[in-house]
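Hi, here's the filled form for the chain we discussed.

Project: internal
Contact: R.S.
Residues: 377
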Amino acid sequence: MTVSHKPSGTKEYPLRILHLEDSAADHQLVVRALKKGMEPFHIQRVETLQSFRDAVEQQAVDVILADYRLAGFTALDAWETLSKSRATSRPPFILLSGAIGEAAAVSAIHLGMSDFLSKDELEKLWRVVHRSLEMSRTMASEAKANAELALSERRLAEFADHLQTTIENERASIAREIHDDIGGSLAAVKLDLAWLQRHVDDPKICPHIESAGEMLQHALGASQRIMMNLRPAILDQGLHAALQWLAQSFEKRTGIKTSLCTNNEFVSPERAIQLVAYRTTQEALTNISKYAECSAVRIEISDAEGVLTIDVSDNGKGFSADDLGKSGSFGIRGLKERAKSVGGWLDVSSQTGRGSAIILSVPLTHTKQMPDEDQFQ
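And the returned structure, exactly as it came back:
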């Protein structure tokens, strides 16, 4: 049975209502109650579970009103049918009955139904329908906004990953140019200086040759250090060796005592994870040298419980949570994005005057726990 109602002077957008009710008299009472809301609507009554399923799958429905007890089934069966149906959306489902108690009605709401109204209070029906529709629209808007936000975050993460890959490729390219061009030229100059040193005995010239040799050696060291920072080829020797080199270089450069400890110096995650671990440690040490004002740094490597953990801590002045929220603090944010790119996460812990710690955690899926035999060849 279908009833249409459109008050004069109202906009043409009939509300599509599906009424699951096996009593024609009760259906008419519902229609009269809805008319008091002055809302244009189109209402269809169905009596069986099959006709209910057909209705929600074959046509658009804005709201469902359902009696609780019907011939051979209940509104709970209808709710389950709606959940399993091929309907493109789930409209508000309002339980409309006088045959159940308050406890059962609350249980129905907990299942996800929109509302409950006793048939003794049909004068409130149109208000309940309006409220349920408004809540449904609000939830749909929130779901759409959340989906759009998730899509935006995913695209941003993909862009950040692409950008980081581009940066690493560019770093490798620059490192190769330094090695091939600058490194080659410096090596050639070193050979020439060595030749001059062997063939010149003039006491006025020899000191200049020695000074030039010292400057040249400094330039060679600087170029090697720059190449290592741009493209950590030492990762080919393993993560432990790479971080050990970082620690030693940091201590030599800054004079800050730096220790490295691990529960497994042969842990060997895939290259992408190693690079993230290396860059995280490198950035953490850079921040420490700039801001920490510390006297000691500790780097810990662990692969306990299948999770690679890199913990870089210091005993410096620390920082507050507000410092992390500053508009210019992109270093930590960048490290967090790096961690996400390999399925990990980054934790930052600090207290003013009590040092700080940056902890990278990455679940390991393909990790060598023992050294390869060729490492001992």
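Let me know if anything looks off before we file it.
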